[in-house]
Amino acid sequence: MTPPQSNWRDATAPLWRNNMAFAQLAGLCPLLAVSTTVVAGLALGIATAAVVVLVSTTMALLRPLVSPAARLPLALVLLAGLVTAIDFISAALLYDLHEVLGLFIPLIVVNTGILAHAREVAANRGVGFTLISSIATGVGFLFALLALGALREALGTGTLLGGIEMLAGESSRSLTLHLPWNGMLVAVLPPGAFFGMALLLALRSRLMRARESQQPEHAQERPQ
Amino acid sequence: MASGRAQLLATALLISAAASAALYGVHEAYDWSEERIAANERARVVARLNSVLDPSLLGRDLSTVLISATDPDLLGTSAPIDVFVLFESGTPVATILAPVAPHGYNAAISVLLGIAPDGTLTGVRAIRHRETQGLGDAIEVAKSDWILQFNGKSLSMPVPALWAISQDDGELDSISGATVTSRAVVAAIKDALLYFEQHRDELYARAAQTAAETNDL
Lengths: 224, 217
Hints:
The complex is a heterodimer. By secondary structure, chain A is mainly alpha-helical. Helix content of chain A is 63%, strand content 2%. Chain A has helices spanning 4-11, 28-34, 38-62, 71-93, 95-101, 112-124, 127-156, 165-168, 190-214, and strands at residues 159-160, 177-178. A two-stranded antiparallel sheet of chain A has the order 1-2. In chain B, strands 1, 2, 3, 4, 5 and 6 form a 6-stranded antiparallel β-sheet that branches. Chain B is globular. In chain B, 39% of the residues lie in helices and 18% in strands. In chain B, a hairpin with a 5-residue loop joins strand 5 (109-115) and strand 6 (121-128). Chain B has helices at 2-47, 179-216, and strands spanning 63-69, 81-88, 91-97, 100-101, 109-115, 121-128. The chains are: A mainly alpha, B alpha+beta. Chain A binds chain B through residues 36, 62, 65-67, 69-70, 73-74, 77-78, 80-82, 84-86, 88-89, 91-93, 95, 99, 102, 185, 188-189, and chain B through 7, 10-11, 14-15, 18-19, 21-23, 25-26, 28-30, 32-34, 36-37, 40-41, 44, 128, 130, 132-134.
């Protein structure tokens, strides 16, 4: 029996310590492909978070009924249905943004981070733990998309929140921030995604190391 | 053995139930969004119709008739495309085609082109594309003036043999770094002009008939 405090710590680990993108290095394909702007990252992040919360929580609710062998097919069926529905609905409501995200909404189905969460956490922990942990997973992935999106958009096109009107309507167009430089094309091209991701991983690793040396009692702990 | 079989059955039932629920959800989502998506697609085209018209037509009292046309060879898709014929007091003054350039670098490119009755282009826009950011996306009028070079062009200027980018010994400019994109768009425009040349009177007649039928209702 683990103490509640440790439970909470485990459930929220995907926010930062066990972040889907930065620690598990899962779901990198959509992350690298879509993070050309903050707005595209935000939209895909919200869709991914919604999917991981719904699928993992449903899996946790159904856990007593599901034999271990049936977990993966069940998770895939739920994922496929949910993601297809989200694809249709986002095309109906946010058509321009849907065009930008293109293939990457359907590809949420094969996001390994979501599948891992549905298989590992939802299959072994309670509904409450799974709910909190899936929210942390979704928000953590959203954070990764926003961080990489902001870095690449700022460097690549010299703006921040460009195209926000596709998400929040014409009235939000003025939120776009124009930075005092012109973009550097490579940042928004695919190689820029890898450079940006490498920079963020290095930065995170530095932050983690600084923290570990401050708190030696957690130094042993490794993300699973 | 029996319990193993029972468990197998239970699993099969569970997966089937989940698949049925997922299918039902997808069906509902499709029903709900189908018309909205089609309306969004058309709204995007309609919102940009004016951008490919001869500016002297803007502000005049035109009636727009929507018909469709199918020609896999010249219009780039086996599906019907939208054709808007604009009438001014019963006379066709402009035709707007929405064909597809199937050989874009990453995917097909949707194009909108306005054609005067004499076959002269009054404007071309790329409506939907997946071309590379910073290179092929120069087909967007917001990114570069490249697409404006087609204004005033027709199949007699340049002649069809020269309707190609300069790399292919044609007379049209290409986007530097995006030869494939330029070639695809130029070919689609040329084909659409050919289609218009061959079908102009038929399009006008069908549009006039559609307008008459709509007025009768």
